[in-house]
Design goal:
- By secondary structure, the protein is of the alpha+beta class.
- The protein has helices at residues 19-22, 43-55, 66-70, 74-78, 100-110, 116-126, 154-166, 187-198, 213-218, 230-233, 244-263, and strands at 2-6, 14-15, 27-33, 36-42, 57-60, 83-86, 91-94, 97-98, 132-138, 142-147, 169-174, 177-182, 202-206, 221-223.
- Strands 5-1-13-14 form a 4-stranded parallel β-sheet. The protein has a 4-stranded antiparallel β-sheet with strand order 9-10-12-11.
- A hairpin with a 2-residue loop joins β7 and β8.
- The longest helix is centred in the C-terminal third of the chain and has 20 residues, at 244-263.
- It is globular, with a radius of gyration of 18 Å.
Length: 264
């Protein structure tokens, strides 16, 4: 049995802010929040995903919290995956319900890391300047900062990132969000758990950020859209030829082409 385990934002779906740069000619709104339009998907990507979801396990793998994932109406009403990974691997949903076995396993692994509240307290003492707008807790598993991107210096980012890695936490800067996530809270580790539980024999993967590196690298067939930040650090990953929504379409077309070749 095959699966397609893919990141969502900037890999398959795109925010309203990204549409001018990464949009397609035909797309549809799939997420709103308090009346605001949040995310879109190209019509072609949606059609291709519907085919994928019929032919194999489609597993959304996102850094979004459970609540943020559930806002995406497409995956609640039209393309409804049996499994989804949220919170950067912190939770696995099966038919929309948290898989407790994985949560218990992860809780034991987190005992090896600097606790969340201690990490945040130390982080706040290390920050220099007033470039942080808000600090948000994500499902009590990790934190992300809403920042003034144009006011933070590269040297400051590097200093904080190096410190975080020394604590066993993985950092990532994505637009105006700066993530700090404990090493056990990892997208690929959650997917690897599902691989074993479901008896998956081949996993296609895709993602755009540093937090997707393990997912892309460890998948049997991993992709990074050419616009992805992960390529700045790992330029040898397999990349698409096209960017934005066209990259999403390119990735899924490649997967379906392989599936067709395998079945003939």
């Amino acid at each position: 049995m095959r699966a397609f385990a893919s990141d969502l934002d900037r890999t398959l779906i795109y925010s309203s802010k990204m549409m001018n740069q990464f949009g397609a000619e035909e797309f549809q709104l799939i997420e709103t929040l308090e009346g605001k339009e949040i995310s879109y998907i190209s019509n072609k990507t949606k059609d291709l995903l519907q085919t994928v979801n019929k032919e194999m396990h489609f597993i959304p793998v996102t850094t979004r919290t459970i609540e943020q994932y559930r806002r995406i109406t497409l995956f609640q009403n039209e393309i409804v995956p049996q499994y989804a990974v949220t919170s950067n691997g912190g939770h696995i949903l099966r038919n929309g319900i948290v898989l407790q076995d994985w949560s218990d396993h992860l809780k034991r692994s987190l005992k090896e890391c600097l606790p969340l509240e201690h990490f945040v307290r130390e982080l706040q003492t290390l920050v220099q300047g007033n470039w942080i707008k808000r600090i948000r807790d994500a499902d009590h598993l990790f934190v992300y900062l809403i920042i003034k991107r144009d006011q933070v210096l590269e040297e400051e980012v590097n200093r904080l990132f190096n410190w975080a890695r020394e604590q066993g936490w993985q950092p990532s800067l994505q637009g105006r969000k700066m993530y700090f996530i404990p090493a056990p809270v990892n997208k690929w580790k959650a997917v690897a758990y599902l691989k074993k539980e479901l008896g998956l024999t081949y996993i296609h993967t895709a993602g755009d950020s540093l937090l997707d590196y393990d997912l892309i690298q460890n998948g049997d067939d991993g992709y990074a859209p050419v616009h992805g930040e992960v390529l700045e650090t790992y330029p040898n990953l397999r990349r698409t030829k096209q960017s934005g929504m066209k990259a999403s379409e390119e990735i899924i077309e490649s997967i379906l082409s392989q599936l067709a070749s395998h079945s003939t």
